[in-house]
Amino acid sequence: MCFFYALAREAEKLENRLGVTLNFDFRPVYYTSGFDFPQMPVVTNTEPERAQLFNWGLIPSWTKPENVATMRSYTLNARSDSLFVKPSFRGSILQKRCLVPATGFYEWQTVGGKKYPYHVYLKTEDVFCFAGLWEEWTDRSSGELTRTFSIITTEANPLLARIHNLKKRMPVILPPNLEGDWLRPDLTRAGIQALTEPLDDSLLAAHTISRLITSRNLERNVPEIQDRVTYPELIEV
């Protein structure tokens, strides 16, 4: 699963890293929750030269208006093993793929009935990309067009299996040299399956952070949310 992540870099650095333009204001995001259905930058296969702001929580084009709120709650993530089966995703996977840039994400380890939050990130890359899907939904009553995305998840690699030790899932992280392949219009089903394998855990790092991340009364979109916090009772991964 991946319901919380960060994109803690300025617009200019994102443009340079991804080779795209950002035609909107963007400030570093240290914490965002999918359950708020935020607008976040994505790079689509149809317009790979620029980043766009899409809402997290995919709404298939055929969704009835009364079902929109429920639908997007269940499509924050798309399981790699059901991309070609689940109606919510099978209409997008071959034609509407996107890169979802990030600098890290958050997961919880459960030990002795308690949950410990971790910040997970790449060892050598400042910005990386999740593999994503996107869709367009039109409100027929107003004509308003909404563009949305989902982050694809896969089985956990050994590191994430120790951290996310109940569900044992992780987001699909694309190596930088394969990001362009994910956007290729001729990418086949076999190619998609090959790109949604778990990332080698030797490329990732993680550390425990404060339980500030679970607070509803304090501002969580702050740099300090990523600071290392040691829990004496916990043997860290």
Strands of the largest sheet, in order across it?
Answer: 3-1-8-9-14
Strand content: 25-35%
**How far is the N terminus from the C terminus?**
19 Å
The succession of helices and strands, N to C, reads EHEEEEHEHEEEEEHEEHHE
Q: Roughly what is the average pLDDT, rounded to an integer?
A: 96
pLDDT below 50 for ≥5 consecutive residues: which ranges? none
Taking all Cα atoms into account, the compactness measure Rg is 17 Å
Tally of helical segments: 6
Helicity range: 10-25%
- Give the biggest sheet: 5 strands, antiparallel
SSE-based structural type: alpha+beta
Rough shape?
Answer: globular
Number of DSSP-assigned strands: 14
Question: Keywords, please?
Answer:
five-stranded mixed barrel; five-stranded antiparallel β-sheet; 237 residues; alpha+beta; 15% helix; 6 helices
